[in-house]
């Protein structure tokens, strides 16, 4: 039985991915900061699972958490680097440095810390599969999203770099770049402003977390000699990061 470690599993794409892997018979290491959410998810699973609570942006927490993985889960076959966030929406001049630090900490440093903690054991075990969740914001920068877009461009570069460094070690790397997905994303970005977050998805049918989880499930289910290197996923009504055709 394969084992997958999923960061940001408490909600959104991470939670949906865990549920998709459960259907595939992949045992799970559920990672996040909200233990009650992880426990609620765990109660719905049929496969064996274990929970790790840590902040990906804290290097010591990452190391301690990975070191504490139970023996039955130590051989990690799949790593899904999903944890990340967006904070604030405005020009560089108007931006809050605390928001920048939060995005760089989770979207870039967190991905690096977790990957560094997991990949060496994958190499020792003869290979594995790393799946990084970037964004269409990593493909095209948009106004008022300078730092967020920069962090997602970094994810794209890290995906390429891991592939270049570790294909020889039997490690596949898949970069998934979602467009507009209706999750907690916008509510976090707008700091709890539910009305403003709701307007992001008005007038069209956005992607769901399950749509992205389905793509991840496909990437891990292809034959061993096949690598899905990069996948960009838009809603039907979306043509570019900031170009959405709305009915109203």
User: How many helices does DSSP assign?
Assistant: 8
How is the largest sheet built, in terms of strand order? 3-2-1-4-5-6-7
List the secondary-structure elements in sequence, H or E: EHEHEHEHEHEHHHEEE
**What is the top-level CATH class?**
Alpha Beta
Q: What best-fitting shape do the alpha-carbon axes yield?
A: globular
DSSP helix fraction: 40-55%
Largest sheet: 7 strands, parallel
User: Helix/strand/pairing class, anyone?
Assistant: alpha/beta
Looking at the structure, the CATH topology is Rossmann fold
Unreliable stretches: none
- Based on CA atoms alone, the radius of gyration comes out at 17 Å
Family: Belongs to the short-chain dehydrogenases/reductases (SDR) family.
InterPro entries: NAD(P)-bd_dom_sf (IPR036291), Sc_DH/Rdtase_CS (IPR020904), SDR_fam (IPR002347)
Keywords: Oxidoreductase
Pfam family, one: adh_short
């Amino acid at each position: 039985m394969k084992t997958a470690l999923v960061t940001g599993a408490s909600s959104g794409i991470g939670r949906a991915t865990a549920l998709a892997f459960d259907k595939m018979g992949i045992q799970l290491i559920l990672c996040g900061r909200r233990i009650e959410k992880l426990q609620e998810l765990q109660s719905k699973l049929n496969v064996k699972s274990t929970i790790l609570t840590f902040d990906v942006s804290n290097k010591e927490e990452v190391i301690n958490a990975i070191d504490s993985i139970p023996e039955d889960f130590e051989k990690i076959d799949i790593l899904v680097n999903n944890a990340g966030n967006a904070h604030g929406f405005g020009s560089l001049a108007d931006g809050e440095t605390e928001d920048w630090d939060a995005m760089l900490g989770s979207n870039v440093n967190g991905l690096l810390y977790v990957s560094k903690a997991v990949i060496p054991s994958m190499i020792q075990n003869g290979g594995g599969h790393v799946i990084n969740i970037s964004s269409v914001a990593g493909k095209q920068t948009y106004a008022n999203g300078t730092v967020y877009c920069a962090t997602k461009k970094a994810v794209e570069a890290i995906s390429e770099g891991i592939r270049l460094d570790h294909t020889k070690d039997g490690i596949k790397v898949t970069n998934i770049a979602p467009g507009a997905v209706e999750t907690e994303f916008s509510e976090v970005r707008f700091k709890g402003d539910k009305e403003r977050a709701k307007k992001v998805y008005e007038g069209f049918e956005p992607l769901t977390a399950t749509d992205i989880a389905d793509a991840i499930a496909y990437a891990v289910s292809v034959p061993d000699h096949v690598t899905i290197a990069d996948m960009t996923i838009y809603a039907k009504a979306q043509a570019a990061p900031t170009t959405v055709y709305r009915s109203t």
